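Researcher: Here's a chain I'd like modeled. Treat it as a single chain, no partners, no ligands.
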Amino acid sequence: MDITNLSKYSTLSLEARKKLIELLLQQDRDIRLIFQRAADDLAKEIRRLEREGQTSQIPVLLDAMLAESAMSIEDALSELFRSGLVISVEAGMHQSKQATLRILNKAKIDWKPIERVYFRKHAAAVEAMQTRVIKGLTLSDRIWGQSRVARQSMGAIIQEAIAAGEHPYRVAEMLEGFVRNGAKSLVSQYPDMIARLEGNIPMDMCYESLRLARTEMAAAFGEAAMQAAEINPSNEGIRWSTSNGGNTCDKCKEIASKDNGLGPGVYRLHEMPEYPAHPNCLCTLSEVVEELDSFVDRLIEWQANPLTHQDIEKWYQTVYKTGEF
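Model: Modeled as a single isolated chain. C-alpha cells:
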C-alpha cells in the first residue's frame, strides 16, 4: 500500500480507537457520578430524618432507602451501558465501514447496499452484546450485581456507624466520603469501624463497575470490528496491537507478537484470539487490507468480467447482492 493510502487507512484506525477511548473516559466519569448521586440522595434522606426529629426511624427505614438507592444505580448503569454499546460498536465498525464505502465509491460501485449491511450488522452486534451470557450471567445480571454490592457496602457503613453511636450528620458525611474517596478516606478518622468492616466493603465502591464497563465496551468494539471485517471485501486479517500505555501484560504481548504467516500480531478472522484478553485490556484491533489501488483495479476488472476475480464475485453474491450477510 502506498504511503498516501496507508496514511488514510491508519487515520481511520486511529479515529476508531479515539472514539472508544473517549467513551471509556466519559463512562469513568459518569459511573462515579452515578454512585455519588445515589450516596448523596441517601445521605440527604438521613439528614432530613434527623432534622425532622425522626432519627429513630433511620434503622427502620434503612432497607427501603438502600433498595431505592440500588435501583437508581441499576437503572442509571443500564442506560449508560446501553448507550455505550451503541457507540462501541460504531467505533469497532468505523475503520472497515469507511474504507469499504470509499473503495466502492472509487470503483464507481453503488455503496448503498453495503451500507445497509453495516447497519444491520451494527444492530445485531449491539443486541449480541446485550444478551451474551458469561458464567451464566447476562449483562443485566452483572449490572444488577454491581447495584447489589453498592447497597451492601453503603448499608454496612451506615449500620456500623449507627451502632457506634455516630450522629446522623456524621453518618451521612462518612457515606459521601467513602463513595468519593474510597475506604482509605475513613481509615484515619474511623480506624476501629473500618477494622470491623474489613472484608465487608470494597476499597473503591465504583471499581468493579468501572472494570465491567471497560471490559464490555472493549468486547463490543472487538465484536464489531470482527463482524465489519467480514463485510469488507479487501480484508486480509486483523492486527492485534498492544496498548501504548506501558502496562502490557505478558499474555497480550504474546498475542501481539505471534506470527501466523501474515506478520506479527496479524490473524485471519477465524484464528483471532478472544478479545479483550482480560478485564481492563486496552489492546487495539485494526484491519489489514489489500493495497487500496490494487483492489480498486481488481474491482474494475471484476465488473467487466466477474470470472476474473472469484473472491470478489463470492463477496458480491453472498454479501453485497443479498444485503443480508
